[in-house]
Amino acid sequence: MAEREMHKAVCADCGNECEVPFKPDPSRPVYCRECYRNRRPRRRRY
């Protein structure tokens, strides 16, 4: 499996530097793993 090219970015929520597997678009926010997890809607369990 080939390694993904990682790009440095700054999290829009906490301001920490992180790496993402896509080229960040300046017009859209980027979130670190922790902030992204907190922003996702919770899954309902039935």
Your description of this structure?
- The protein is α+β, with helices and mostly antiparallel strands.
- The protein has one domain (7-39).
- It is built from one helix and two strands.
- The chain has one helix at residues 33-39; strands at 7-10, 17-20.
- Strands 1-2 form a two-stranded antiparallel sheet.
- The longest helix is centred in the C-terminal third of the chain and has 7 residues, at 33-39.
- The chain is extended and about 40 Å long.
- The mean pLDDT is 91.
Write a brief caption for the model.
It is built from one helix and two strands, in the order E-E-H.
* Principal-axis shape: extended
* SSE order: EEH
Total DSSP E strands: 2
Number of domains: 1
What proportion of the residues is helical, as a percent range?
10-25%
Distance between the termini: 36 Å
What percent strand? 15-25%
Q: Any idea what the radius of gyration is?
A: 13 Å
Please, how many helices?
Answer: 1
Give the class from helix and strand content and strand pairing: alpha+beta
In the sheet with the most strands, the strands line up as 1-2
* Poorly predicted sequence stretches spanning 5 or more consecutive residues: none
- The average pLDDT is 91
Largest sheet: 2 strands, antiparallel
List keywords for this structure.
46 residues, alpha+beta, two-stranded antiparallel ribbon, 1 helix
Helix and strand arrangement:
Elements: E1 7-10, E2 17-20, H1 33-39
Antiparallel strand pairs: 1-2
